[in-house]
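Retro notes (design track)

What went well: tokenization of the new backbones is finally stable.
What didn't: we kept losing track of which sequence belonged to which structure.
Fix going forward: every design gets posted as structure first, then sequence, in one message. First example under the new rule, 365 residues:
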């Protein structure tokens, strides 16, 4: 299991720029701010003697990375680099699996206070970037607009970052990435990024995974072929092993469970209220049912993340609550159990505390 060290500031050895994937360390000599025209201007902190004003200025500051992309500089929100080594969470799955919708609903649920029952509060890493994510992703999806697929890129698709403060008062920068399965298979630089990832959330699409006959009309309508997910194989084959197992914290999510809402045990778990306390025992129960369901219905390939990682849980979820109709969700979206996979990997990485019965060494066993 990877548990990041949470020091006062990260070093070049343990932090990567979320855009170019090169090592980076916090450097107040490279700070910038954005003016009303969204142009970057160098920030000079000399003379800022008020601790409160200085902290407020830094919240909206950016650091210029020493690397360039296509000859152009790029900038990272300063709080992402100044609160210790970031915890990186990546969504894995091929196109149209619903992982972008799932990630969007996860972040929306955090903003709505979904982690408060676990003693976790949140703050944006950069207010402007976070507001842009909310306006471009969360608000349209909740209004019923279908989001576009992950944009093809040679770099990891950095979506948003939050500062999560756990029950013990430690603040963790948590960065969220949406990895395109097609890009993973095509881009070696993107695969190298996985070597430093802390948590993976594998998203299973029932339309691809399950041979259930009543899903055939929808498969035909959406032109989705039944079969395995190459992104799973690509990621699991590239990650380094700790003995017999991969050390990265992981969760497998059977998404789009609204399509399976009358199937046992999907019906039972989809009707469960959101979890309000950390319970390794409840994670094991859901993982047991999800593993048995997926293994018997879809085969061994779809449960390979559980079989090959040291810490892994399995979950039932629905990011939207229904299938889209002509590119939109006419009645809005009704997410179900979207936070449970994230709560699981946060627990495995130590963000939710170090308790014996429900701590990092108990969750995902």
């Amino acid at each position: 299991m990877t548990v990041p060290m949470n020091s006062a500031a990260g070093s070049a050895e343990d932090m990567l720029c979320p855009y170019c994937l090169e090592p980076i360390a916090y450097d107040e000599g490279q700070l910038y701010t954005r003016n009303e025209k969204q142009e970057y201007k160098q920030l000079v902190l000399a003379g800022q003697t008020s601790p409160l004003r200085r902290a407020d200025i830094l919240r909206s500051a950016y650091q210029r990375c020493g690397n360039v992309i296509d000859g152009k500089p790029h900038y990272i929100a300063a709080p992402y680099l100044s609160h210790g080594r970031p915890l990186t969470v990546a969504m894995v799955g091929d196109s149209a699996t619903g992982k972008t919708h799932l990630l969007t609903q996860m972040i929306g649920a955090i903003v709505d206070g979904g982690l408060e029952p676990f003693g976790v509060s949140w703050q944006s890493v950069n207010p402007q970037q976070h507001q842009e994510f909310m306006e471009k992703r969360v608000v349209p999806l909740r209004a019923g607009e279908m989001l576009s697929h992950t944009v093809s890129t040679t770099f990891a698709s950095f979506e948003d970052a939050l500062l999560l403060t756990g029950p013990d008062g430690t603040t963790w920068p948590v960065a969220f990435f949406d990895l395109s399965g097609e890009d993973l298979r095509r881009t070696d630089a993107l695969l190298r990024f996985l070597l430093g990832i802390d948590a993976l959330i594998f998203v299973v699409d029932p339309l691809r995974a399950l041979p259930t006959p009543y899903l055939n009309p929808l498969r035909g309508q959406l032109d989705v072929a039944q079969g395995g997910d190459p992104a799973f194989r690509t990621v699991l084959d590239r990650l380094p092993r700790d003995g017999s197992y991969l050390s990265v914290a992981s969760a497998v999510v059977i998404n789009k469970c609204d399509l399976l809402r009358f199937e046992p045990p999907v019906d039972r778990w989809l009707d469960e209220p959101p979890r309000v306390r950390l319970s390794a025992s409840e994670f094991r129960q859901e993982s047991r049912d999800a593993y048995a369901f997926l293994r018997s219905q879809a085969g061994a390939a779809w449960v390979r993340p559980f079989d090959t990682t040291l810490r892994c849980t399995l979950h039932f979820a629905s990011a939207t609550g229904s299938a889209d109709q002509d590119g939109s969700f006419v009645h809005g979206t009704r997410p179900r159990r979207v936070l449970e996979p994230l709560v699981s990997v946060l627990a495995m990485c130590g963000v939710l505390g170090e308790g014996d019965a429900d701590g990092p060494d108990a969750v995902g066993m």
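Added context from the reviewer: The radius of gyration is 20 Å.
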